[in-house]
Each structure stands twice: as structure tokens, then as C-alpha cells.
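B., you asked whether I could sanity-check this one before it goes into the benchmark set. Here's the sequence:
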Amino acid sequence: MIATVITVSDRCNKGEAQDLSGGLAMTMLTELGWTVQGCSIVPDERDQISKALTSACGNDVWLVVTTGGTGLAPRDITPEATLDVIEREVPGISELLRWHSYRRVPNAVLSRGVSGIKDRTLIVNLPGSTGGVRDGINLLGPLLPHAVSILRDIPHPHDTEVCRSRETPTTVDILQANIDDMNPQFCELLSSRLFDAGAVDVFYTPILMKKQRSALLLTVLVPPLLSERAADIIFANSTTLGVRRVGADRFVQQRTWVTVKTAYGAIRVKVGSWKGRQTTAAPEYEDVRAAAVLHGVSAGEVYTAAQTAFALTESN
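And here's what the prediction gave me:
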């Protein structure tokens, strides 16, 4: 599966800002198993965006992801440029992205991104923020292989409601910092920004430092290419004066998604396998939470219903 990323940004095109969203999109798609053929940067100019999209679709690319230019600002014209190029819209993808993001960030409904098809290539507009890219690719990860397999008339495991998920990196950098003089309430924002920048995991451990001062040990797991950016975020959003970094290899289970049907709608179940044997299966919390809110029931009821549906699927 071949993908291309196009960043739409005047500032990134001029070299005035670093292309964080495009880089994150490339990293995440690669971890999903896509072969990413570079990342181009174009200014917020309708004809240049359309030209870049047309050129990308002509190189046997299965998927084109754009980042940026989807908002309400006068120069945000990525959707218009995309509509100039595509032959058919796929509105459900963009509607899903907006609905999913709205649950966390209400302003996400202001995104005007569109999705569609040119020839046999799927084009998806994502916002220009790293958070929007991260949420979008995480959400669409299980769907994209199935979509492009239909376009290419190639059988895919998702036809049986099973698809591969993003496999977490087997090699990561471990960043650690001692924090002893910061308001703990600030940890939430720090964690959020680290995740938006591509961190695999972020957590805090209570520790005692010299002179028995209470403190927090911040630990961040991050792909090596994103370590320096993560360090930038830690220094900008905490009081620590130093960040330690060590590389580590990990044993990582293969992850797949199985979508099950319940009385509360479709719920994804994340399945872990090790050496070809299934070891874990757990309903995806975001799906459970959304269904619980929609139907006015507890998360536990939806969770149990999804577990039951999955067990029936496995027994058939």
C-alpha cells in the first residue's frame, strides 16, 4: 500500500515553521504498514494544491493525506482545491473525523476537510495540527486498507470485519525527567502535547528526591525520530532542567481490530496476539464511551455487550 502526504502551509513552504503535522502523518502511516513516498509542502494556493494532488494520484499512489488549510481562515482553501481534483466524494470519512474530534474539541466542527476519489486514489483532508493528524489517522487506520482495497479491487481481511491496526514501534526512546516544583494540574496539558507530537506513551511515577522532597518522574516513550521534538515540549511545558534519553527495544504483540455489532451499535475490539496465539481482547474505550453517551447507559453495559458479541464471533 503506497501513500503520499501533502502539507498545505504558507509558513512551512517558506521555511518559517517546521512541518510537524506532515512528519507525524508519515510516521504514523509507516507504522500502519504503508509505504510512504515522501512528504511535499505547498503554499495555501488553490492551483498549487490541486496540481500537487493530481501529480500524487498519477504515481500509482493508493492514498493521499493532506494536512492543513481546512479551517475558516481566508487562505484555508484545501477543501476547494481537493474538490477541483476528485471525481467522487466520500463524505462519511470527513463526517466521522469531525464527529469523533467534536467529542474532545467542540471547535473541530469548524474543520471543512473533504474526502474523495480521483481515479483509484483516495484523498483525505486532515487538519494542520498534530493533534488533528494523530486523532485522524488513529481513527481511520482500521478503515483505510479496506477502502483502498475496494478501489483497487483487491481482497482484504477487513471484508470479514477484521483488519490490522497500527503496530507500535519495536524501537523507542525513553525520555525521563524529575519534576519537583510544578503544579500537578499542568501535567495534563504536558501529556496531551506529547501525545499530539507522536509519543507512544506518557506516564508519571511518584518519587522521593534528595532531602526527601516529593516529586514526579515523567516517562515518555517516543519513536527515535521524534525525541528532540518531545524534549522541546517537556522543556517548554514543565520546570525540569534536564531530560534523560535511552534507547530501548520492545517486544510488541501483533494488534488487530475486530468490529462487532451490539445493541448499542458497532464497537471495535482490540485483539493482541503473540507468536500466532491470541492473548488479549478488549473493547475500544472510545467506542464504548461514545455508545454509552449516545444511548444513555453505563460504559460497563456497552463494554459487556461488546465482550459478549466478540465471544460469539470467536465461537462461530
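One thing to flag: The longest strand covers residues 265-274. Otherwise nothing jumped out at me.
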